[in-house]
């Protein structure tokens, strides 16, 4: 919930929260974290629905207030950290922090000393479908854009897989952001089986220096899939182990695994690195947008630990 709220605020959306008959400090903290800052001006606590008309009037008055049109960055309320620059959103009184290289987060509070070689491995099997493939493609493009903004030292490769594995681009190509985004936009959905083992072995191959990967970089694989392997399934976990044994951090994102079954969920868990957060389960492809910051923060922590 909180990451989704942060994404909205970063996009310049002003969030009012109306909390009805809430009790407990835990819930109050969540409401404060969801709302635009400062919470005391944007969270309304009421005991019953009958109080809503009064709250509606208060919200209307705030929307009509000259304060909603002022540049919030001219006040002392916003503190972008580590040299970040406050950028005000039009009309709403919201803002975002534009971070310098090496930092990320809503307030540029997260240090991300990154030099990553990141291989995206995305499922193009028949169960995914063209619409969902497009959502995975958008997710990949957005994460790449954010990582590129954090550091120009990050490099990227892209693999799509069905019955086969296809390298859309390797680390040695598309060093600028526009080239990367154009290459991703040009990827086409090609349905087939689910040969996850071949896709992971292809990622391992790309992370060798012959394909533009760097010995000095920290290696990350981001897998997005929605079912268990059905081609050479016995080779999937050995392929994942080979990556992890080489020091690669593997983030495995499983889509709608409750529908796919227990075997699929177990396979995705076993593919992921041992960090509890490295396996991410989502109920829908539209939820990918809400985990972008989580994925990047996880990578930043990996980078701070200094592991190859």
UniProtKB/TrEMBL annotation:
<feature type="disulfide bond">
    <location>
        <begin position="99"/>
        <end position="108"/>
    </location>
</feature>
<dbReference type="Pfam" id="PF00008">
    <property type="entry name" value="EGF"/>
</dbReference>
<feature type="domain" description="EGF-like">
    <location>
        <begin position="69"/>
        <end position="109"/>
    </location>
</feature>
<keyword id="KW-0245">EGF-like domain</keyword>
<dbReference type="InterPro" id="IPR050525">
    <property type="entry name" value="ECM_Assembly_Org"/>
</dbReference>
<dbReference type="InterPro" id="IPR036465">
    <property type="entry name" value="vWFA_dom_sf"/>
</dbReference>
<protein>
    <submittedName>
        <fullName>Uncharacterized protein</fullName>
    </submittedName>
</protein>
<feature type="domain" description="VWFA">
    <location>
        <begin position="1"/>
        <end position="63"/>
    </location>
</feature>
<dbReference type="Pfam" id="PF00092">
    <property type="entry name" value="VWA"/>
</dbReference>
<feature type="domain" description="VWFA">
    <location>
        <begin position="117"/>
        <end position="299"/>
    </location>
</feature>
<keyword id="KW-1015">Disulfide bond</keyword>
<feature type="disulfide bond">
    <location>
        <begin position="80"/>
        <end position="97"/>
    </location>
</feature>
<dbReference type="InterPro" id="IPR000742">
    <property type="entry name" value="EGF"/>
</dbReference>
<dbReference type="InterPro" id="IPR002035">
    <property type="entry name" value="VWF_A"/>
</dbReference>
């Amino acid at each position: 919930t909180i990451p989704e709220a942060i994404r909205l605020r970063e996009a310049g959306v002003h969030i009012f929260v109306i909390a009805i008959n809430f009790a407990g400090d835990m819930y109050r903290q969540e409401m404060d974290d969801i709302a635009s800052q400062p919470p005391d001006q944007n969270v309304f606590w009421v005991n019953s629905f009958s109080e809503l008309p009064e709250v509606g009037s208060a919200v209307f008055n705030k929307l009509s207030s000259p304060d909603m049109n002022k540049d919030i960055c001219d006040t002392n309320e916003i503190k972008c950290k580590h040299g970040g620059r406050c950028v005000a959103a039009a009309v709403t009184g919201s803002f975002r922090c534009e971070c310098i290289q090496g930092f990320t987060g809503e307030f540029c509070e997260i240090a991300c000393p990154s030099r990553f070689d990141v291989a995206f491995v995305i499922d193009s099997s028949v169960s995914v479908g063209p619409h969902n493939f497009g959502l995975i493609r958008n997710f990949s493009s957005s994460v790449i854009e954010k990582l590129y903004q954090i550091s120009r030292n990050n490099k990227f490769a892209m693999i799509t897989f069905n019955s086969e594995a296809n390298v859309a681009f390797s680390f040695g190509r598309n060093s600028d952001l526009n080239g990367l985004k154009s290459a991703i936009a040009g990827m086409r959905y090609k349905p087939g089986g689910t040969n996850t083992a071949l896709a992971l072995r292809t990622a391992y191959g790309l992370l060798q220096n012959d394909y533009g990967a760097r010995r000095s970089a920290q290696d990350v694989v981001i897998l997005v899939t929605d079912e268990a392997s059905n081609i050479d399934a016995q080779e999937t976990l050995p392929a994942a182990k080979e990556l992890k044994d080489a020091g690669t951090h593997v983030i495995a994102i499983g889509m709608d695994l409750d529908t796919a079954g227990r075997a699929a969920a177990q396979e995705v868990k076993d593919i992921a690195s041992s960090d509890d957060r490295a396996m991410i389960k989502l109920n829908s492809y539209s939820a990918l947008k809400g985990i972008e910051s989580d994925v990047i923060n996880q990578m930043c922590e990996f980078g701070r630990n200094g592991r190859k």
